[in-house]
Amino acid sequence: MALDKILSIGGKPGLYKLLTQTRSGFVGESLLDGKRVTVGLRSNVSVLSEIAIYTLEEEVPLREVFQKIKEKEDGKKTTINHKADKIELEEYFFEILPNYDEDRVYASDIKKIIQWYNILVDNKITDFVVAEDAEEVPAETASSEEE
Protein backbone atom coordinates (compact mmCIF):
# COMPACT_ATOMS: atom_id res chain seq x y z
CA MET A 1 0.00 0.00 0.00
CA ALA A 2 1.34 3.42 -0.96
CA LEU A 3 1.59 6.40 1.36
CA ASP A 4 -1.03 8.24 -0.73
CA LYS A 5 -3.68 5.99 0.86
CA ILE A 6 -2.46 6.56 4.44
CA LEU A 7 -3.92 9.46 6.42
CA SER A 8 -3.30 11.33 9.62
CA ILE A 9 -6.49 12.74 11.09
CA GLY A 10 -6.26 15.71 13.43
CA GLY A 11 -7.47 14.88 16.94
CA LYS A 12 -7.33 11.11 16.39
CA PRO A 13 -4.36 8.92 17.36
CA GLY A 14 -2.38 6.86 14.87
CA LEU A 15 -2.78 6.51 11.13
CA TYR A 16 -5.70 5.54 8.93
CA LYS A 17 -6.06 3.70 5.66
CA LEU A 18 -8.35 5.45 3.16
CA LEU A 19 -11.16 3.04 2.32
CA THR A 20 -13.59 5.13 0.31
CA GLN A 21 -14.70 8.68 -0.34
CA THR A 22 -18.24 9.87 0.31
CA ARG A 23 -20.09 13.09 -0.56
CA SER A 24 -19.49 14.47 2.90
CA GLY A 25 -15.94 13.18 3.48
CA PHE A 26 -14.44 9.71 3.56
CA VAL A 27 -14.24 6.44 5.48
CA GLY A 28 -10.93 5.40 7.01
CA GLU A 29 -9.74 2.34 8.91
CA SER A 30 -7.37 2.66 11.85
CA LEU A 31 -4.01 0.95 11.43
CA LEU A 32 -3.87 0.59 15.22
CA ASP A 33 -7.10 -1.28 15.97
CA GLY A 34 -8.89 -1.75 12.62
CA LYS A 35 -11.90 0.37 13.63
CA ARG A 36 -13.59 2.34 10.88
CA VAL A 37 -14.26 6.06 11.17
CA THR A 38 -16.22 8.49 9.04
CA VAL A 39 -14.48 11.82 8.65
CA GLY A 40 -16.10 15.01 7.39
CA LEU A 41 -14.57 17.40 4.88
CA ARG A 42 -13.97 19.99 7.60
CA SER A 43 -11.63 17.71 9.56
CA ASN A 44 -7.89 18.36 9.52
CA VAL A 45 -6.59 15.46 7.42
CA SER A 46 -3.09 14.98 6.00
CA VAL A 47 -2.07 12.42 3.39
CA LEU A 48 1.39 11.05 4.27
CA SER A 49 2.59 11.29 0.66
CA GLU A 50 2.00 15.07 0.75
CA ILE A 51 3.99 15.75 3.95
CA ALA A 52 7.56 17.07 3.76
CA ILE A 53 10.22 17.83 6.38
CA TYR A 54 12.09 21.14 6.40
CA THR A 55 15.85 21.01 5.93
CA LEU A 56 18.27 23.91 5.65
CA GLU A 57 18.25 23.64 1.84
CA GLU A 58 14.87 22.22 0.81
CA GLU A 59 11.84 20.23 1.90
CA VAL A 60 12.38 16.45 1.96
CA PRO A 61 9.33 14.25 1.32
CA LEU A 62 8.29 12.17 4.34
CA ARG A 63 8.66 8.96 2.29
CA GLU A 64 12.40 9.71 1.91
CA VAL A 65 12.72 10.24 5.67
CA PHE A 66 10.92 6.91 6.26
CA GLN A 67 13.28 5.24 3.77
CA LYS A 68 16.31 6.59 5.67
CA ILE A 69 14.88 5.30 8.96
CA LYS A 70 14.22 1.93 7.31
CA GLU A 71 17.84 1.75 6.10
CA LYS A 72 19.18 2.73 9.54
CA GLU A 73 16.97 0.19 11.34
CA ASP A 74 17.32 -2.64 8.77
CA GLY A 75 13.58 -2.57 8.05
CA LYS A 76 12.68 -3.08 11.72
CA LYS A 77 10.98 -0.77 14.22
CA THR A 78 13.02 2.13 15.58
CA THR A 79 15.46 1.57 18.41
CA ILE A 80 14.15 4.74 20.04
CA ASN A 81 10.66 5.13 21.50
CA HIS A 82 8.55 8.09 20.36
CA LYS A 83 8.09 8.96 24.06
CA ALA A 84 11.83 9.45 24.61
CA ASP A 85 13.30 12.74 25.86
CA LYS A 86 13.49 15.69 23.48
CA ILE A 87 17.31 15.52 23.34
CA GLU A 88 17.32 11.80 22.49
CA LEU A 89 14.71 12.32 19.76
CA GLU A 90 16.68 15.19 18.24
CA GLU A 91 19.95 13.19 18.31
CA TYR A 92 18.25 10.23 16.61
CA PHE A 93 16.66 12.45 13.96
CA PHE A 94 19.98 14.21 13.36
CA GLU A 95 21.44 10.79 12.42
CA ILE A 96 18.59 10.27 9.93
CA LEU A 97 18.48 13.78 8.46
CA PRO A 98 21.63 15.72 9.51
CA ASN A 99 20.57 18.96 7.83
CA TYR A 100 17.00 19.18 9.15
CA ASP A 101 15.90 22.67 10.17
CA GLU A 102 15.94 22.61 13.97
CA ASP A 103 13.99 25.89 14.12
CA ARG A 104 11.04 24.54 12.12
CA VAL A 105 11.02 20.82 12.96
CA TYR A 106 9.93 20.41 16.57
CA ALA A 107 10.34 17.47 18.96
CA SER A 108 6.59 16.84 18.59
CA ASP A 109 7.08 16.44 14.81
CA ILE A 110 9.92 13.96 15.37
CA LYS A 111 7.72 12.00 17.81
CA LYS A 112 4.97 11.74 15.18
CA ILE A 113 7.40 10.64 12.47
CA ILE A 114 8.86 7.89 14.67
CA GLN A 115 5.43 6.79 15.84
CA TRP A 116 4.06 6.75 12.26
CA TYR A 117 7.08 4.81 10.99
CA ASN A 118 6.58 2.14 13.69
CA ILE A 119 2.84 1.88 12.90
CA LEU A 120 3.65 1.41 9.20
CA VAL A 121 6.25 -1.29 10.00
CA ASP A 122 3.72 -3.07 12.27
CA ASN A 123 1.28 -3.08 9.33
CA LYS A 124 3.97 -4.25 6.86
CA ILE A 125 3.79 -1.02 4.87
CA THR A 126 7.48 -0.46 4.20
CA ASP A 127 7.68 0.31 0.48
CA PHE A 128 8.57 3.98 0.70
CA VAL A 129 10.30 4.30 -2.68
CA VAL A 130 8.21 5.93 -5.40
CA ALA A 131 7.34 3.62 -8.30
CA GLU A 132 8.45 6.17 -10.91
CA ASP A 133 12.04 5.88 -9.60
CA ALA A 134 12.04 2.24 -10.66
CA GLU A 135 10.42 2.89 -14.05
CA GLU A 136 13.11 4.93 -15.76
CA VAL A 137 12.50 4.92 -19.50
CA PRO A 138 15.40 5.62 -21.86
CA ALA A 139 15.11 8.98 -23.64
CA GLU A 140 15.90 7.54 -27.07
CA THR A 141 14.98 4.29 -28.70
CA ALA A 142 17.65 2.16 -30.34
CA SER A 143 15.74 1.86 -33.62
CA SER A 144 17.49 4.40 -35.79
CA GLU A 145 17.66 3.35 -39.42
CA GLU A 146 20.40 4.37 -41.80
CA GLU A 147 19.84 4.43 -45.59
Automatic annotation (TrEMBL):
| Positions of the DUF5606 domain | 3-48
Protein origin, superkingdom? Bacteria
Question: Where would I find the DUF6852 domain in this sequence?
Answer: 51-120
A Pfam match: DUF5606
Output the InterPro entries linked to this UniProt entry.
BVU_3817-like_C_sf (IPR049281), BVU_3817_N_sf (IPR049282), DUF5606 (IPR041218), DUF6852 (IPR049280)
Give the protein's recorded name. Answer: Uncharacterized protein
State the organism of origin.
Flagellimonas hadalis
Q: What is the lineage of its organism?
A: Bacteria, Pseudomonadati, Bacteroidota, Flavobacteriia, Flavobacteriales
